[in-house]
């Protein structure tokens, strides 16, 4: 009589539980943190982007301490322009150079090959621009109040200040991302972007009264967002009587909003059409 053999059931192996991917907001926060740390660790970027507007304010405020009329000093007029220039440097100029450098050294190519959503890279850059812009504005206003007696905006003027600065930063951020594709490599990025940024500052009423600039230069400046951003900021730092010195004889806040908004649309189109994750 044969004894029936009993078979021991084999225990099936359970597949290892896959680790869930991080949520999109956490990826955005992580990338933004990386961008901020990288920026503030680079002394050249901090000095050039954050401290240059401060140095210009100190130099011009000390040398050109005269009145323009109606009780307005040149420093009061210059404050609007130097804030606009600071936003330009933090957004368009800094982004165009840094993105071109990261494309040239292979950083962008490496990021494109990771599971990180590509949108997180741009969110990180936008957060960096916003943080640096706020820091520049805060430092410039503090120095202007303490050393030059700058009169701050009041009441609803702060709302105008906020939307002009925000729209201007957005337009220049998108323009900077698009301009990063013009440079052949990271080494040529600064030589490509910096002269363009300086030229815009000279013809857009940053260092001089806009009414004293030749008409054809005013026409060229009106094509780009810096002129409109500086004009919008002048409307909150200067009395209404100074609006007569503007080309249209008024602050044109409605047109400023339309132009800066249009540049946001154009800049977004240029970014989509030209952005590359690696060099040609």
TrEMBL record:
Q: Where is this region: Disordered?
A: 1-23
* Cellular component annotations (GO), alphabetically ordered: ATP-binding cassette (ABC) transporter complex
Q: Which PROSITE patterns match?
A: ABC_TM2
Annotated GO MF terms? ABC-type transporter activity
Transmembrane portions of the chain: 46-66, 78-101, 122-148, 160-179, 191-210, 256-275
Topology versus the membrane: Multi-pass membrane protein
Which InterPro entries did the record assign? ABC2_TM, ABC2_TM_bact-type, ABC_2_transport, Nod_factor_ABC_transporter
Feature: compositional bias, Low complexity: 1-20
Domain (ABC transmembrane type-2): residue spans on this chain = 44-278
Q: State the compartments where it is located.
A: Cell membrane; Membrane
Q: Does the keyword Kinase apply?
A: no
Q: Which UniProt keywords apply?
A: Antibiotic resistance, Cell membrane, Membrane, Transmembrane, Transmembrane helix, Transport
The Gene Ontology biological process annotation of the record reads: response to antibiotic
Chief location of this protein? membrane
**Classification via PANTHER family:** ABC-TYPE MULTIDRUG TRANSPORT SYSTEM, PERMEASE COMPONENT, NODULATION PROTEIN J
Q: Which family does it belong to?
A: Belongs to the ABC-2 integral membrane protein family.
What is the protein name for this chain?
Transport permease protein
């Amino acid at each position: 009589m044969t004894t029936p053999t009993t078979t021991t059931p084999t225990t099936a192996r359970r597949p290892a539980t896959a680790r869930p991917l991080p949520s999109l907001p956490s990826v955005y926060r992580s990338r933004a943190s990386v961008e901020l740390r990288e920026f503030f660790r680079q002394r050249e970027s901090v000095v050039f982007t954050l401290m240059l507007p401060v140095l210009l304010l100190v130099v011009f405020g000390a040398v050109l301490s005269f009145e323009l009329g109606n009780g307005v000093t040149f420093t009061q007029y210059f404050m609007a322009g130097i804030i606009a220039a600071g936003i330009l440097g933090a957004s368009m100029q800094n982004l165009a150079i840094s993105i071109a450098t990261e494309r040239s050294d292979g950083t962008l190519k490496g990021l494109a090959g990771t599971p990180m959503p590509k949108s997180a890279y741009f969110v990180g850059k936008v957060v960096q621009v916003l943080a640096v812009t706020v820091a520049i504005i805060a430092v410039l206003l503090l120095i202007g109040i303490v050393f030059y007696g700058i009169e701050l905006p009041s009441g609803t003027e702060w709302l105008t200040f906020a939307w002009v600065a925000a729209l201007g930063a957005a337009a220049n951020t998108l323009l900077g991302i698009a301009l990063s594709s013009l440079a052949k490599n990271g080494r040529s990025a600064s030589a490509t972007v910096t002269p363009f940024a300086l030229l815009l500052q000279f013809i857009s009423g940053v260092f001089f009264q806009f009414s004293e600039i030749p008409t054809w230069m005013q026409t060229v400046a009106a094509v780009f967002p810096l002129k409109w951003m500086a004009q919008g900021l002048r409307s909150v730092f200067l009395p209404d009587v100074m609006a007569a010195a503007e080309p249209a004889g008024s602050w044109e806040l409605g047109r400023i909003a339309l132009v800066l908004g249009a540049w946001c649309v154009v800049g977004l189109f240029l970014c989509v059409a030209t952005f590359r994750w690696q060099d040609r």
